[in-house]
Amino acid sequence: MAHEAPSEADAAGAENFERILAKDSRVEPKDWMPDAYRRSLVRQISQHAHSEIIGMQPEANWITRAPSLKRKSILMAKVQDEAGHGLYLYSAAETLGTSRDEMMDALVQGTARYSSIFNYPTVTWADMGAIGWMVDGAAICNQVPLCRASYGPYGRAMVRVCKEESFHQRQGFEILLELANGTPEQRAMAQDAVNRWYAPSLMMFGPPDDDSPNSKQSMAWNIKRFSNDELRNRFVGMLVEQVKVLGLTLPDDEVRFNEDTKKWEHGPLDWEEFKEVLAGRGPCNAQRLERRRSAHEDGAWVREAASAYAEKQAAEHAQKVAA
Amino acid sequence: MSPQESTESTTPAPGEGGHRWPLWEVFVRSSRGLSHVHAGSLHAPDAAMALRNARDLYTRRNEGVSIWVVPSDAIAASDPDAKGAFFESPQGKDYRHATYYTKSEGVKHL
Known about the structure:
- The structure holds two protein chains of two kinds.
- Chain A is mainly α.
- Helix content of chain A is 67%, strand content 2%.
- Chain A contains 13 helices and two strands.
- Chain A has a two-stranded antiparallel ribbon.
- In chain A, a hairpin with a 4-residue loop joins strand 1 (256-258) and strand 2 (263-265).
- The radius of gyration of chain A is 22 Å and the shape is globular.
- The model of chain A has no long low-confidence stretch (mean pLDDT 94).
- By secondary structure, chain B is an alpha+beta fold.
- Chain B has a single domain (20-100), classed as Phenylacetic acid degradation B (Ubiquitin-like (UB roll), Roll), CATH 3.10.20.
- Chain B has two helices and three strands, in the order ββαβα.
- The radius of gyration of chain B is 20 Å and the shape is elongated.
């Protein structure tokens, strides 16, 4: 196809696509769109979906050991939300013509990526607080502008996700606040969790702008609205104020507001570590994938039984209609 | 407009690596007196499971009092490329709107 002149329909489609972007309107599933736009969206949305699905694991780790029935109920609701977010996003990606099975297979086979943050272990209860406050906080910063992404189904999924994320962030903040006002041991546990999750959560915004190959195109397509560094700086500014309420500190001596640029700045981040984790060599990569794989395989009989039951019901119904 | 076209979804054909369960479109009525509104889609083996899954997926926070599920491939949709020809007729028919009639301005209760 690449060698042929574009057909009349393609040319008209391309013109319409550019018009939609210029008006900052939305592209819908049946509209003509460039192949690269479609591919880029499938990559971004499915990675996002995988992150939600894998993201259930670090928190599910603490459901059985939550300190009270209330906290256990909250944590279960939150993990259930993450599953829901994954499903909204898989549906959005499917409208681009990639099947659910293809995406699931890519995840289980380890060929798909997901957010590097979920490859870090959750070693104490305070991690549930730090994840809610910082990891979900970073996710919200990232996702609010995505509600205006040029691809309609992605934007709509993000609206739904964002509404639910604010509960996640507040419950995390509350866990940390209670620990910070508890015994000296609890307070130390809260500070330790903040220390460990700070840098990984800042890296959730992706590599620095000068090392982010897809960002420019993604912004030209109105998918991304702000650069990685812009969002990261904004997020640091929010943390600075919020950590004061907690009475804790950020493990970064170089956080400051730059009066010249009017932007928040932070200390250096270990981008080598980021690349290692993304490449599959983080502390929990193997464990996370293995868990997902076995959950998928262990649940096969349920899916098969549901299919068999549906077929049987349909056959019985067909027979009744015929009789 | 061809009947096999669905609104939101490109349902993968069976046997082409597509999901074994069909895709359903979910419509939720948020409260009595309002219409059902499209909320999203999901996969399920049959209508009963689709309803249960829709409840878990789209009404975890009292978002609805009633749910419809419709097989995605049962939805007929207009062709977006034919938008001009298909929706053109109201163009230049301002007289269908109350705002077209300006001479009655200032007259009360009209």
